[in-house]
Design a protein that fits this description.
It is built from 5 helices and 7 strands; from the N terminus they run αααβββααββββ. The protein is of the alpha+beta class and 200 residues long.
Length: 200
Amino acid sequence: MIFMRAFFSYTLIFLFFLTGGAYGQSAHAFNSGMNCNKAYRLPDTSTRPYHSGTNGDDSTYQPAISSPSYTNNGDGTTTDNVTGLMWARGAYGTSYTWANALSSCTTTMNSGSGYAGYKDWRLPNVRELISIIDYGIAQPCVNGAAFPGTQTNGYWTSTTHPTATSAFVVLINTTGEPCGRAYDGAKTANFYVRCVRGGQ
């Protein structure tokens, strides 16, 4: 009995280190979806301190590799130089249900010769959409030059909530709500869309 208990304990410890965390949760599975250009990096939360004079925020350090940096490609797209993702710059003034949001990116954007000449547009997953949030800007809390026309409301992601009837929505700052908060929205509700390509 003692031998069996010891064997079981050592087996659990081995599995913990093998998976890089809790049993059944590998580091690869956790990081998948933001493995952009084979490098898992998230940008800093902001180029400005959360509180004036505060040390210890991302803005205190600002390593060049993770400082927010965008390129206007001049063809209606913006490239995030940190993650390598390319975003559609268009001002999406129409809100969609989740199914229509998926279709607007995967079907409409990819029809004909494709938007800006690319035919692999899709709805971003929740990690990708959160990566463009700038917590030092309010209403909307994204870089206005990189993402013009952004609505101060929720934006759909492709990430389905465990309930299956909902999908994750990322708030781009509505009154009284925190920037970048992800929550489950009913798939029949209407939210905004910003399509992306690359990554994964």
